[in-house]
């Protein structure tokens, strides 16, 4: 049983970097859980001080998740091995009002009901009687294995540590336990991300309320963006809240990806006549993921509020293409947002400012839809 109680587990080391596959699964499990808990969830951390995945729900409640995976789960001698390791780690987290999740890519961890947890998040209290019994016996076996390890240990500090772990496992609050399996999750990207991609599509159609064709059009780009974002975030040291990914930061790219891919004609709004060279440079910057910064809710809200005041100004007038009239008249108020992207080129900065303003105004419908669906206030 010693393999369930390796030194890393005993020291509660959540580092998944030893296995690139494990880290990859952890990232995608974070995306899966964040989408499943929307709109109640407010933020997420990958590789936090507390667990592999840590999320905050309303009223400061927490979700602590252990993400365990195997590149070839059929080669594991004991399918419960990773579950036991996860329980040892989860047992240290506070229980009251919180949820403790074991999430893996192993579909038949529990033999009594194989595949019971596939692509769902199911509470221990909602499990079938036979399945509860199997979980109970598994957790009891962890405590017994720790007792045996204590007997064989001679170093006082390690004995004290093991006794502490045993106490936490013995008093594990199963009513706070949730189990989830992402399956299938193996092989190349085409197989590995099938269910993650399905979850993204379901989120966009069922939670956000997008037409299916719109959701299908953006889901792959959105998933790839989230994967890169989460992978980068997992490498950041967890201090001063810098690892935190807010719901706002997570969901604003949806709005950006929904923008019509056609390049808008805003020549009439500019103070100069643009040539193809500057248009190509603007298109390049717009296609750079880092430029999504200017689609964030805070900035979008500022633009939309200013536009609402403008519409009151022209109330009763016949104005064709009011968006373009607004941009021509008030676009200069937002120039400072784009100075860094323009590298001192005043014409480029003006063009960038006004093309992004047009995108936001044209996308107002999507902003409101996404905000309402995920519980973001702007």
Model description:
The termini are far apart. The longest helix is centred in the middle third of the chain and has 24 residues. The protein contains 15 helices and seven strands. It is elongated, with a radius of gyration of 25 Å. It has a seven-stranded mixed beta sheet. It is α/β, with parallel strands linked by helices and 378 residues long.
Descriptive key words:
single chain, 378 residues, alpha/beta, seven-stranded mixed sheet, 15 helices
Please count the beta strands (DSSP E, at least 2 residues each). 7
The average pLDDT is: 89
Structural class: alpha/beta
Strand order of the largest sheet: 5-6-4-3-2-1-7
Could you give the topology of this structure?
Layout: H1 7-10, H2 20-36, E1 43-46, E2 53-56, E3 62-68, H3 81-90, E4 99-104, E5 121-123, H4 129-152, H5 156-170, E6 177-181, H6 189-192, H7 194-207, H8 212-234, E7 245-246, H9 247-257, H10 276-286, H11 297-313, H12 322-330, H13 339-342, H14 346-362, H15 364-374
Parallel strand pairs: 3-4, 4-6
Antiparallel strand pairs: 1-2, 1-7, 2-3, 5-6
């Amino acid at each position: 049983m010693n393999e369930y109680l390796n030194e890393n587990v005993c020291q509660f080391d959540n580092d998944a970097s030893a296995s690139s596959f494990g880290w990859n699964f952890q990232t995608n499990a974070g995306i899966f859980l964040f989408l499943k808990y929307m709109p109640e969830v407010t933020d997420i951390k990958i590789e936090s001080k507390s667990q592999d995945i840590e999320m905050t729900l309303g009223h400061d409640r927490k979700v602590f998740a252990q993400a365990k995976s195997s590149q070839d789960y059929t080669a594991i001698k004991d399918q419960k091995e990773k579950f036991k390791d996860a329980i040892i780690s989860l047992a240290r987290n506070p229980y009251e009002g919180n949820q403790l999740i074991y999430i893996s890519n192993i579909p038949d961890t529990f033999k009594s009901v194989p595949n019971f947890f596939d692509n769902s998040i199911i509470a221990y209290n909602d499990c079938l009687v036979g399945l509860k019994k199997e979980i109970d016996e598994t957790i009891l076996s962890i405590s017994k294995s720790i007792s045996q390890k204590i007997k064989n240990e001679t170093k006082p500090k390690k004995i004290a540590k093991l006794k502490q772990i045993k106490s936490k496992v013995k008093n594990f609050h199963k009513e706070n336990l949730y189990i989830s399996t992402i399956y299938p999750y193996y092989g190349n990207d085409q197989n590995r991300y099938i269910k993650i991609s399905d979850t993204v599509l379901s989120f966009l159609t069922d939670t956000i309320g997008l037409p299916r064709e719109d959701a299908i059009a953006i889901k792959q780009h959105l998933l790839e963006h989230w994967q890169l974002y989460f992978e980068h975030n997992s490498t950041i040291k967890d201090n001063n809240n810098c690892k935190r990914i807010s719901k706002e930061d997570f969901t604003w790219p949806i709005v950006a990806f929904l923008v019509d891919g056609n390049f808008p004609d805003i020549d009439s709004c500019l103070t100069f006549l643009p040539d193809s060279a500057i248009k190509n440079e603007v298109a390049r910057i717009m296609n750079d993921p880092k430029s999504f910064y200017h689609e964030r809710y805070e900035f979008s809200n500022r633009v939309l509020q200013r536009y609402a005041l403008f519409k009151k100004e022209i109330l009763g007038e016949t104005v064709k293409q009011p968006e373009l009239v607004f941009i021509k008249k008030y676009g200069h108020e937002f120039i400072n947002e784009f100075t860094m992207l323009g590298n001192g080129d005043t014409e480029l900065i003006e063009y960038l400012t006004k093309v992004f303003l047009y995108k936001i105004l044209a996308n107002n419908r999507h902003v409101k839809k996404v905000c309402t669906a995920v519980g973001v206030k702007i």
